[in-house]
Amino acid sequence: MKVVKTLKHPITSHHRMLDATLHVYQEALSFLITVIQEQFMALKSLSTQAVVTAVERLTHRTRHNPDPLYTEFDQRFYKFPSYFRRSAIAEAFGIVKSHHSRFELWQAERQHAQQEGKRFSKKPPILQAQHQAFPCLYKGNMFIRTSHTTANIKVFHQGDWVWLPITFKGQDLFKRNVWSMKECSPTLVRTGKRYALHIAYEGDVKLTQTEPSKQRVCAVDLGLTNSAVCSVMDASGTVLARTFINQAKEKDRMRQITGKLKQAQRQSGIGTKPNFWRRINGLQTHIVHDTAHQILAFAQKHRADVIVMEYLGKMRLPKGTWGAKRFRAKLQFWAKRCIQTKVTEMAHFLGMRVSMVNPANTSALAFDGSGFVQRNTKRDVAVFTTGKMYHADLNASYNIGARYVLRNIQKSTSEMRWLSLEAKDPSLAKRTYWTLASLIRVQQALRLQT
Predict the structure, then answer these.
(1) Which of 108, 167, 185, 372 has the most CB atoms around its CB within 10 Å?
(2) Cα-Cα-Cα-Cα dihedral of 339, 341, 342, 344, to 10°?
(3) Name one GO molecular function term (predicted).
(4) Element at 285 (helix H, strand E)
(5) Beta bridge partners of 123
(6) Concatenated DSSP letters for 423-441?
(7) Which H or E element spans position 82?
């Protein structure tokens, strides 16, 4: 499969001198969004390449096109590079097309609510002309590399487009494992007051082809008390390793900040509160990245072939909660989704497979098959019906891995043979009741049949 990895190269030689280039590109993008919105009915059925050609005829004067409809573009953006113009047209068309798709979905939701006689208060989406977009510096035309850490780029300076030599921080391509991949054109990105070149590397990765009966599974439960609990097991159900991943200090800071944010909102109303959100987003990003890296390191250490996680679906907030507690539940769900996305990207880059299983009852059922469990107030300990006490998230990770292995066994087993297994173990009839004990019983039954 094709994978893409982007490396950040901070520019060390210039900062404020690049502001004009970014500003003129974003202004041109806003102008083109307005043009495409006005002509969208004629453009919506065309491909992106055809739209680029059509909009160029509407905005850019040439010898063969002396009278474009929108002459203001050439007047406002004199000598605007053709590669920038085509890139901005393609990006503007995507923005406008996305807006119309969201507007059609809003209309369908409103019509559905009216048919059912329900109140519909959701506001329609509004097309925004101003976007924080970043230009792509195409190789040879806008970007010429002169060494490992230097290059010449075309920028807008003092009313003209000129070549500017820059110096940027290099990256160890061997350490980042992209030395054999194709280097794409860089993107000029601003973060705060600093600029960087984001260079993407494309390559092909072959995912593991291990037979299901010989696979090692790394089951991950994104729990409530821990960021993640992982366990590695083989196809027979033998647990080979386990680990607990948590960021206690960061979560303690997050709890304090969310409490202060809700207190400030009670006093002064719901506002943007940028200082609180900056700290929350920083902690959230650190938790996501640290958790994902530890999961991949654990899976690599124990030579796992596939990483299995729960399919989260839509957000389900706990009933009877409000204020900071409800807000923390939202943050936790968003973090889980980000962790899954990050783990999937990193695993595919390393050649590992990623699979999702049904999350129903993974934490509610005991892995030893004794039935439903009771959770304590903190919800970190599960008490089995036999009186045994076990870590709730670790119990869930066993069931997650077992469900993946059982699903592979069911796919490779004939229906007649599987029905005979269900007759001996009725809990196999529903996937939401599969546990580690179910996997062990199925493996024993299959060995007896052979």
Answers:
(1) 185
(2) 120
(3) DNA binding
(4) helix 274-301
(5) none
(6) HH-GGGG-GGG--HHHHHH
(7) helix 82-115
Q: Are 142 and 84 in contact (CB under 8 A)?
A: yes
In eight-state DSSP terms, residue 207 is P
State how far Cα 201 lies from the chain centre. 18
Report pLDDT for 269.
Answer: 79
Q: How far apart are CA 10 and CA 197, in angstroms?
A: 6
By the 8 A CB rule, do 311 and 357 touch? Answer: yes
Angle at 446 between CA 445 and CA 450, to 5 degrees: 120
User: Can you read off the two tokens belonging to residue 20?
Assistant: 């004009």
H or E stretch covering 105: helix 82-115
pLDDT tens-digit series, residues 204-244: 999 999 999 999 999 999 987 899 999 999 999 999 999 99
The residue with tokens 């984001």 is 198
Q: Using N-to-C axis directions, what is the helix angle for 323-349 and 248-268, rounded to 10°? A: 140
Architecture (CATH level 2) of domain 212-449: 2-Layer Sandwich (3.30)
Task: Please report, in angstroms and rounded to a whole number, the separation of the first and last CA atoms in the chain.
Answer: 37
Q: Where are the domains of the chain?
A: 14-162, 212-449
**DSSP helix/strand/coil, 377:** coil
Distance (Å, whole) CA 28 – CA 235: 57
